[in-house]
Amino acid sequence: MPQMAPLNWTLMLIMFSLTFILYNIMNFYSLKYNYKNMNLYNNKIKFINWKW
Which InterPro entries does the protein's record reference (predicted)? Predict the structure, then answer.
């Protein structure tokens, strides 16, 4: 019969994984993009001469 991890370790694992996921979601949606810089970057890409 396989041994199971103690309940408090599994609860800690679930708690830390949920906080990690929520932290990453908050960071993903809180990014503030500067659209002027993005437009300049996109314009630079258009003028690259590819050799192939």
Answer: ATP8_metazoa
Q: How far apart are CA 32 and CA 2, in angstroms?
A: 49
Query: What letter would DSSP give residue 22?
Result: H
Residues in the chain: 52
Residues 11, 19: Cα–Cα separation, whole Å: 12
> What is the identity of the amino acid at 38?
M
Average predicted confidence (pLDDT) for the chain: 74
User: What gap in Å lies between CA 21 and CA 13, rounded to an integer?
Assistant: 12
- What CA–CA distance (Å, rounded) separates 4 from 37? 53
